[in-house]
């Protein structure tokens, strides 16, 4: 199957669709969430350039754009951004695309916001900004009304004893992103020469006095606003980013309706988020019921939320980025997707199913699953050079356990079976029923990528072998791969039972029993009490003590005696029981590099999770809980408010490493808290 190179107009942007209203608000209802923790992540920081990655950004409902708070040093009425994942590898459109400027109509002077106090608060549901002086209180709330539109509701309250007269002006200045502003009557058009994107800035009602534009800026001056003492006036702005696959006319109609009562719609979103977190908190393992762990639940969900995207372009189903914060991660990866789905199934089974479907949309007829996929292949091409470890059956079964939807099993089961068979047809060089990692393009680097552990020490001396099928395998058989395949057979048996496929049940049972014996005999070293990769003939261990050695415990394929020996090594402080335990390589290995080693020492939460679950599987619950406690408490910033969850962690110091706002780390922290 060849890569599809479809050209899409990147976005039909309504940017921002400005809905203006000035209304008296009687008995204004408080929209402060009752049960949502606040400031779980830090969104402060006005971007200095379109490529500035120094601050995080908030999004919701799968939107492809996100916002932050304006800098506290230079107070503004407005939210930073938006950050557009519709542009290239992700770019900030502006410091503040829709900034509200207020002037005193009597003195004709600009109201100095630096004299105001400033409070900026984030929730899983929305962003809130409050500026207050002795005369005025200005409160802004930004929330996503849909995957395409964010509404900003601004309440200006006169808290003085005298009536005040104000002139208000919306203004925005673009970074040089290839975007360009033009004007058509009372409509401002935003277009881009690179992505053929189109934007619309439009006002509703009769509040406009004047509109001015340049190629990169706009201003909309509103008619005067008179505010009596103790009175509140409301302004509403909506910024819409919508792709051509969606109905823009319908979106504008729904947005105009929602903007008539924005606080009502905000309260609805708050309640949805409160219910989401409340449900998860009820499911917490009894060891993790304290408030700090509930805050961590909120952080894990918010991290996944910030990285969720609706289907557009090449992506036919919704899914989750590894991290929007890193420029190369704006796509879906196979084994990331399976892990995300297992976690998300605990609160959103439909998103979990779509995350799985998103990858199977690109399955080849022979069963191959692509490594990663992107929205726009003119920016990044899908990677068919390698696949990733087989964990989709685990993900599908975990989703089924949550909602019992047999139709989903019926839909995906034959695809998993096809993918499962692919491994034995294209990654079993010597046809001995034991598979190897490999590549489709004949490169060693792609074969290492296929394991997911790109530069792991166990592959340092590996070479490629070309099989009779004109595909390539490493000259070593990997214990984790075959443990995953064993686990997949077990899950396929359970699915076959649901679907009443008796022949398949018998087939996979026989295969599983045969594979179990091979794994126990070939990959386990009694002298050191560890599972290792072996040479292609199975005769020699590749004696690198790495995290792949406990995957047989996660897969429940080790004997009790083997599991006990592996457990002993795992809890040994000289090996894996470090400050942030269960890292990728034993601390005693000469190549151990905990700082910048990537897969040569740092702690990756997915592998640590597999280790913890492996201990639970064999009844070593206290050891598992102790390790979980250290993983949460000692990885810096995980429990604290305002800090993001990182891609991996330094196992000795606990420092966060690599990308911020990382999805599978968040997913596995959630699974650890739920003991799933």
Concise structural overview:
The protein is an alpha+beta fold. Helices cover 31% and strands 21% of the residues. The strands form 9 sheets. Strands 6-7-8-9-17-1-13-12-11 form a 9-stranded mixed β-sheet. Strands 5, 10, 14, 15 and 16 form a 5-stranded antiparallel β-sheet that branches. A 3-stranded antiparallel β-sheet has the order 2-3-4, with no helix packed on it.
Plain-language structure description:
This protein has 676 residues and is an alpha+beta fold. Among the domains are: 12-257, Beta-galactosidase, Chain A, domain 5 (Distorted Sandwich); 274-306 and 545-676, Alpha/alpha barrel (Glycosyltransferase). The chain is built from 15 helices and 31 strands. The strands form nine sheets. Strands 6-7-8-9-17-1-13-12-11 form a nine-stranded mixed beta sheet. The longest helix has 21 residues, at 262-282. It is elongated and about 90 Å long. The two termini are 37 Å apart.
Mean pLDDT equals: 92
Q: How is the CATH topology of the domain at 12-257 named?
A: Beta-galactosidase, Chain A, domain 5
Counting DSSP H or I runs of 4 or more residues, the number of helices is 15
Give the spatial strand order of the biggest sheet.
6-7-8-9-17-1-13-12-11
Radius of gyration: 27 Å
Helix content: 25-40%
**CATH class label of the domain at 12-257:** Mainly Beta
């Amino acid at each position: 199957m060849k890569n599809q190179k479809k050209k899409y107009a990147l976005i039909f942007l309504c940017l921002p669709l400005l809905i203006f209203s000035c209304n008296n608000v009687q008995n204004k209802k408080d929209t402060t969430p009752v049960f949502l923790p606040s400031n779980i992540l830090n969104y402060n920081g006005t971007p200095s350039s379109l490529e500035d990655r120094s601050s995080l950004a908030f999004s919701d409902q799968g939107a492809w754009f996100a916002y932050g708070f304006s800098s506290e040093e230079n107070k503004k009425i407005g939210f930073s951004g938006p950050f557009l994942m519709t542009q290239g590898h992700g770019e900030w459109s502006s410091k503040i695309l829709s900034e509200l400027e207020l002037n005193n109509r009597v003195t004709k002077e600009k109201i100095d916001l630096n004299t105001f106090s400033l409070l900026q608060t984030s929730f899983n549901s929305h962003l809130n900004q409050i500026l207050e002086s002795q005369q005025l209180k200005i409160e802004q709330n930004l929330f996503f009304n849909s995957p395409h539109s964010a509404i900003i509701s601004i309440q200006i309250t006169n808290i003085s004893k005298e009536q005040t007269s104000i002139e208000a002006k919306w203004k925005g200045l673009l970074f040089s992103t290839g975007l360009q502003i033009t004007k058509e009557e009372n409509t401002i058009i935003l277009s881009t020469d690179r992505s053929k994107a189109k934007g619309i800035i439009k006002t509703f009602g009769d509040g406009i006095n004047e509109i001015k534009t340049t190629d990169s800026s706009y201003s909309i001056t509103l008619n005067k606003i008179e505010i009596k003492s103790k009175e509140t006036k409301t302004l509403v702005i909506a910024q819409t980013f919508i792709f051509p696959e969606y109905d823009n006319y319908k979106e504008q109609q729904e947005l105009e309706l929602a903007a008539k009562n924005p606080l009502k719609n905000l309260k609805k979103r708050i309640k949805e988020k409160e219910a989401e977190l409340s449900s998860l908190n009820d499911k917490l393992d009894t060891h993790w019921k304290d408030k700090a762990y509930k805050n961590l639940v909120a952080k894990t969900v918010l991290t996944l939320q910030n990285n969720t995207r609706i289907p557009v372009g090449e992506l036919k189903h919704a899914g989750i980025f590894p991290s929007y914060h890193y420029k190369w991660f704006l796509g879906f990866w196979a084994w990331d997707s399976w892990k995300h789905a297992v976690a998300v199934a605990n609160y959103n089974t439909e998103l979990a199913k779509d995350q799985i479907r998103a990858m199977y949309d690109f399955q080849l007829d022979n069963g191959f699953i692509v490594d990663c996929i992107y929205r726009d292949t003119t920016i990044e091409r899908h990677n068919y050079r390698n696949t990733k470890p087989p964990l989709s059956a685990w993900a599908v079964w975990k989703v089924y356990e949550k909602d019992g939807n047999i139709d989903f099993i019926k839909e995906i089961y034959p695809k998993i079976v096809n993918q499962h068979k692919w491994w034995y047809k294209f990654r079993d060089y010597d046809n001995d029923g034991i598979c190897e990692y490999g590549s489709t393009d004949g490169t060693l680097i792609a074969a290492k990528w296929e394991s997911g552990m790109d530069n792991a020490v166990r592959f340092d001396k590996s070479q490629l072998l070309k099989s009779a099928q004109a595909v390539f395998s490493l000259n070593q058989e990997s214990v984790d791969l075959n443990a995953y395949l064993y686990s997949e057979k077990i899950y396929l048996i359970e699915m076959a039972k649901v679907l009443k496929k008796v022949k398949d049940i018998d087939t996979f049972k026989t295969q599983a029993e045969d594979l179990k014996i091979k794994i126990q005999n070939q990959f386990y070293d009694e002298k050191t009490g560890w599972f290792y990769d072996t040479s292609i003939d199975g005769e020699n261990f590749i004696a690198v003590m790495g995290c792949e050695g406990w995957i047989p415990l996660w897969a429940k394929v080790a004997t009790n005696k083997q599991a006990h020996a592996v457990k002993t090594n795992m809890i040994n402080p000289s090996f894996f029981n470090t400050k942030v335990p269960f890292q990728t390589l034993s601390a005693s290995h000469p190549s151990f590099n905990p700082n910048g080693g990537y897969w040569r020492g740092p702690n990756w939460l997915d592998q640590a999770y597999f280790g913890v679950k492996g201990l639970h599987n064999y009844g070593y619950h206290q050891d598992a809980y102790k390790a979980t406690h250290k993983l949460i408490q000692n990885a810096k910033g995980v429990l604290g408010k305002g800090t993001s969850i990182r891609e991996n962690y330094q196992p000795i110091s606990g420092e966060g490493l690599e990308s911020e706002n990382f999805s599978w780390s968040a997913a596995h922290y959630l699974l650890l808290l739920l003991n799933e």
